[in-house]
Amino acid sequence: MSLLLAELTEKQFRKVSQLVHDLCGIHLKEGKEALVRARLMKRLRAMGMESFDAYIKYIESDRGGAELGMMVDVITTNKTSFFREPAHFDFLRDQILPDIHRHRMRFWTAACSSGEEPFSLSILLRENIRDIDRKDVKILATDISSRMIDRAKSGLYSQDVVQEIPPPYLQKYFWRVNSPGPKVYEVQKNIRAMVRFARLNLMDPWPMKGPFDVIFCRNVMIYFNRATQQRLINRLWEYIGPGGYLFVGHSEGLSAITHKFHYVRPAIYRK
Hints:
Number of helices: 11
Strand content: 15-25%
CATH topology of the largest domain: Rossmann fold
Number of strands: 10
Largest sheet: 7 strands, mixed
Strand order of the largest sheet: 6-2-1-7-8-10-9
Shape: globular
């Protein structure tokens, strides 16, 4: 059968959906069939397979563990940008940082994708914390995608990606890489040094200890069903220190979830 004619049946879609949900909690709703088929076609080509039946059989086999991770990688959306949802960064700068006077500060971006969020956070902290190099300030940045983590660790971004960065920050915290072709910019070492990247499936045990002063878990829960959202919020509560803050995406209010957080303003909650 020609790969171009490979169709994703309803039964196959349900099977893929179940595998993805069991692995990382993502709920692929009805209506996502065309998206899933288009993205999985990339993996069929890479694996030299001509049908979704053969692909599903492989990822369910003892040899398919690594490919199961690759499948989740291509299905998950990795949309991000520098200083995305800027009202959050303004609130952090104006309302949170002035009240933190500790030597030790910990931040976590729980779905960091290709690194724009934690590097934005690092820039903001360096700009607004006095004597930051004398303090113990660290950012943990995690994502389920190994591919995205590798890209984030490189600290390299194309011109179209960095165009959202305020020009003074771009000039101050990025190097222009001398290379042929399109312009490429590299995050400077003093910004990268504050961030530690690690792969983490939010459904797995969390090896870090915390507590964190601020957790960014934005635009993650929209991919989970209500029960998974509830479990995640309960776990995040345990990892935030007293008085600490949780940021979620602007489309992810917690009104439908039972939680102990205090509502501060849209998409911002405090323990």
